[in-house]
């Protein structure tokens, strides 16, 4: 079980870090997050200059040998988040899928574990992977977000709750459905709204104008640039699982080349051994 007991000094540090993370969400000057999935990728992202580190739930699950989509248990997930938090000095936000819990009370328990793991932000998604419907009912999801907010408030930590709305990813609605859900989740205590799958500039602008809070957009190949999203008023830009996917694709290409052709060209451009080793040891 994850230990959720925090000392007064730890809570004080979390409060300061959470406030600093919250201040990074500025419409038109977005927080850019190249998502990490383990301690090594988190330290590399920090070294690259990121002001904060966000985990990708998919990348984290894959790194633990599990599929994405509410298939990972809370202790395994939060153990990985704790290792990420311990590896970096910048604020950490944890992607906790649906909250690693079946009900709202369980989501509150998860948030207490998130704080104990050293993270100061969470993503909570409304996708459903069981029961047939693509999305959780709005009222049900609002209760889960309210439970997350209440757990953070009880600890007096201004945890940044990012409400992920999967209307576009799951083909379950457009701008109107998304805005309806956004309003309900913000009223329940979310701080911002994350709409993966929406990258068309017209759609993004409609969401920026219609959401009464910071908007987070997921990017990857083919999406507008960060500067273009900034001009639309986006407050947060995330890479999601795309960096993890690219890294694992290198493993497959290199393995196939080595096994099939007996050559090693796929490994060109890799980290220098000493440089990477020094980065992991904290010597630089």
TrEMBL record:
Gene Ontology molecular function terms on file: lyase activity
Signal sequence annotation: none
Keywords attached to this entry: Lyase
Record Pfam families: PEP_mutase
Protein name as annotated: Isocitrate lyase/phosphoenolpyruvate mutase family protein
Phylogenetic placement of the source organism: Bacteria, Bacillati, Actinomycetota, Actinomycetes, Kitasatosporales
